[in-house]
Amino acid sequence: MILEFLKQMDYSIFHFINNTISNQTLDSIMLFLRNAHNWIPLYILLFIYLIYSYKWNGLKYGLYILIAFAIADSITFQLLKPWFGRLRPCHSETLTVRLLLNHCGGKYGFPSNHAANHAAIAISIVLAGIFKKKWINYLWLFWAFMIGIAQIYVGVHYPSDILAGFILGASIAYFNYYAILPLLSRLPIIIKGIIPKKTSNNNCL
To answer: How many CB atoms lie within 10 A of CB 39?
Structure first.
């Protein structure tokens, strides 16, 4: 009974975002938001900022963010989607879906890769305090949220796919911050301990 109610609510919210509020302006905005290629300049600027602000430590933060993305993407795509096996709305034979893309994407949609990946990146950035100004942190969180909403709007994900992706991404970000970042901070010390020290040859002839 509860599961059926949640399912119907999921469908209703999907229909509202995908159909009810749709217009040409939102079409253009949402298509831009959900296209990963459009964010490449942002990632380049982020890397430049990290190097400029943190010098060699910027490489550590860059790797930290990359690891967050890699873990989220791998777990979502390779493990959870095949395990749950939930079809995307654009593969449904019963729902009326307004698909804005010329393809539906993969077969399965739960949880959303886009939502998990971008939430993991944004929350990892916020947790590490890479940007000191709060409004910039809010922008990163809003950025991840809007990319998730765009996935629903274009017709390739249910709201529950996005919510699950956000939860997964947030969990990975916390793991990344508390487990991976301290390890990356100690990496130069670990490497220094592994490399044998040169011994001087003071033997006299």
So the answer is: 17
How far apart CA 153 and CA 100 sit, in angstroms, is: 8
CB-CB contact of 61 with 130 (8 Å): yes
Taking only the tens place, the pLDDT of each residue in 90-102 is 998 888 899 999 8
Distance CA 78, CA 89 (A): 20
Burial 187-205 (b: 16+ CB within 10 A, else e): eeeeeeeeeeeeeeeeeee
Whole-angstrom Cα distance, residue 178 to residue 11? 36
Residue 84's identity, in one-letter code, is F
Which phi and psi (to 5°) does residue 200 adopt? -80, 145
The pTM for the full model equals 0.89
Q: How far is CA 83 from CA 75, 86, 90, 104, 118, in A?
A: 11, 9, 19, 19, 22
CB 120 within 8 A of CB 71: yes
Short-list 39, 17, 32, CA closest to 118: 39
CA distance 184 to 162: 30
Q: Where are the domains of the chain?
A: 29-185
Q: What is d(CA 101, CA 31) in angstroms, rounded to the nearest whole number?
A: 8
Q: How confident is the model at residue 1 (pLDDT cuts 50, 70, 90)?
A: confident
